[in-house]
């Protein structure tokens, strides 16, 4: 299959190569605290194998078929579960819960309050707990919480459910990002991330169809409970079932994947060596925490998430109501949200593929933002006579929501500037690391990939632009 190489010997280490020579001694001192992959490779008779292309493709197929279907379904449910309240809002929820004033808007916000409040705790647990098992528990809990919404009969109860729903779902996106980086090489991650993220769109398609079917069916035949409660029960119980399946299938890492042979587990680790980031480390290291806090990119990505989620939250919670305000009936608005989901699926899969193919992920992201900005500007700027059919915000149906639309355009513009800064900074860091690798005293440490170095310490780590 391949040649074997000597593994890293902690007692007689070779010269480490890192971006800052002053941390050499610290790295060697804590080499026993390295990535779990290094321990696995040391247990495998002191050998690390180099994969041939056929073996790599075989492993990739196995990994794809076991991880991607479940990750896609769960992420689709993740979006559907957040937006179920949007469907329910035009199916009697506001009347039955006696919502007045801006109480519905507060229900939309409570999810994000719970999500934001628990994000730090969620990320700590994702690092310290078994990744697959912890993620599965969160999925089961969020399904149970969502199902409980069917028993709510007042604003206070709805607030509690939405808050805990945000807490339970706070681990999903960061957990899936960890799973993807753990199992796939950098050249594979964009397409896989685009694939499971595209199920936001599938969630919108399926959710709209289910809500439409329930609305039409209950209107014709009646039901013992309110139609909006059926939606919460259906999506919540489905999520619980998928969560138990996730618990059985998705491993914590390559080392306990029951669908891989012992030899293939080591090979699955070896195939991601090129990432220069390991597969997992459960130990907290204060110097790494401090480095993260002083890294401009930590704040750049945090700022991007904050600004980008302002329009995202509004559109997610008011999507059905916005379509209804275009001039459609309540049941039609449930069905006509489906094309938007289809566009999202195509755009996400295409951007993920293009990002990996061109090696320009940030450029593809900026292109998507510019498209969204143009669409929103057209909605604001075009006169009513230039809009086609019922796709208008007619004054007699609803306000034009111009302030909200302008806010969305501004947010997208700020995100574009933030992405440009991220690209500039990473390009600058890549050039600095290239100079380090080209220096005469540069020598790469054996198994450096598994020593749990930060991207700042590891000169071999190159940022994907």
Describe the secondary-structure layout.
Blueprint: E1 4-6, H1 24-29, H2 36-43, E2 47-49, H3 53-89, H4 93-96, H5 103-128, H6 131-148, H7 155-169, H8 172-183, H9 186-197, H10 199-221, H11 227-249, H12 262-270, H13 286-294, H14 296-324, H15 330-335, H16 338-358, H17 361-381, H18 402-438
Antiparallel strand pairs: 1-2
Helix pairs in contact: 3-8, 3-9, 3-10, 3-11, 3-14, 5-7, 6-7, 6-8, 6-11, 8-9, 9-16, 10-11, 10-16, 14-18, 16-17, 17-18
Describe, in plain words, how this protein is organized in 3D:
The protein has helices at 24-29, 36-43, 53-89, 93-96, 103-128, 131-148, 155-169, 172-183, 186-197, 199-221, 227-249, 262-270, 286-294, 296-324, 330-335, 338-358, 361-381, 402-438; strands spanning 4-6, 47-49. The protein has one domain: Growth Hormone, Chain: A (Up-down Bundle), CATH 1.20.1250.20. Helix 10 (199-221) runs antiparallel to helix 11 (227-249) and helix 14 runs antiparallel to helix 18 (402-438). The protein has a two-stranded antiparallel ribbon with strand order 1-2. Mean pLDDT is 79; it is low at 1-31 and 388-399. It is built from 18 helices and 2 strands. With 465 residues, it is mainly α. It is globular, with a radius of gyration of 25 Å. 68% of the residues lie in helices and 1% in strands. The longest helix has 37 residues, at 53-89. GO terms for molecular function: transmembrane transporter activity. It comes from Talaromyces atroroseus.
């Amino acid at each position: 299959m391949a040649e074997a190489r000597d593994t890293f010997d902690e007692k007689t280490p070779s010269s480490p190569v890192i971006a800052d020579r002053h941390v050499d001694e610290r790295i060697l001192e804590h080499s026993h605290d390295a990535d779990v992959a290094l321990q696995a490779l040391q247990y495998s008779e002191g050998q690390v194998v180099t994969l041939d292309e056929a073996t790599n493709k075989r492993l990739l197929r196995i990994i794809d078929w076991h991880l991607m279907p479940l990750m896609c379904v769960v992420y689709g449910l993740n979006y559907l579960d957040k937006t179920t309240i949007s469907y329910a809002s035009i199916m009697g929820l506001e009347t039955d819960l006696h919502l007045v004033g801006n109480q519905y808007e507060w229900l939309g916000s409570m999810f994000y309050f719970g999500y934001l409040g628990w994000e730090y705790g969620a990320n700590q647990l994702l690092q310290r707990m078994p990744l697959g098992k912890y993620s599965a528990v969160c999925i089961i809990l969020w399904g149970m919480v969502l199902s409980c919404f069917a028993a709510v009969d007042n604003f206070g109860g709805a607030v509690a459910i939405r808050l805990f729903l945000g807490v339970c779902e706070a681990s999903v996106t960061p957990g899936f990002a960890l799973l993807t980086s753990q199992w796939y090489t950098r050249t594979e991650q964009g397409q896989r991330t685009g694939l499971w993220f595209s199920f936001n769109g599938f969630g919108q398609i399926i959710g709209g169809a289910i809500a439409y079917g329930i609305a039409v069916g209950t209107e014709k035949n009646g039901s013992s409970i309110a139609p909006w409660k059926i939606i919460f029960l259906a999506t919540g119980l489905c999520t619980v079932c998928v969560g138990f399946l996730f618990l059985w299938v998705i491993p914590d890492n390559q080392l306990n994947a029951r669908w891989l042979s012992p030899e293939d587990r080591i090979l699955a680790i070896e195939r991601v060596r090129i990432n220069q980031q390991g597969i997992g480390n459960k130990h907290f290291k204060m110097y790494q925490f401090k480095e993260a806090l002083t890294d401009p990119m930590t704040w750049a990505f945090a700022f991007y998430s904050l600004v980008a989620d302002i329009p995202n939250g509004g559109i997610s919670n008011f999507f059905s109501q916005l379509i209804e305000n275009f001039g459609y009936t309540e049941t039609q608005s449930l069905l006509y949200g489906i094309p938007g989901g289809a566009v999202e699926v195509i755009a996400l899969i295409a951007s993920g593929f293009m990002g990996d193919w061109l090696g320009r992920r940030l450029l593809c992201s900026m292109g998507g933002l510019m498209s969204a900005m143009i669409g929103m500007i057209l909605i604001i700027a075009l006169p009513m006579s230039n809009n086609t059919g019922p796709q208008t915000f007619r004054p007699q149906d609803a306000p034009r929501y111009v302030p909200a639309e302008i806010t969305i355009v501004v947010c997208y513009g700020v995100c574009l500037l933030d992405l440009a800064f991220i690209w500039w900074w990473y390009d600058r860091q890549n050039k600095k690391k290239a100079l380090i690798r080209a220096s005469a005293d540069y020598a790469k440490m054996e198994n450096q990939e598994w020593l749990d170095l930060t991207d700042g310490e590891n000169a071999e780590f190159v940022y994907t632009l």
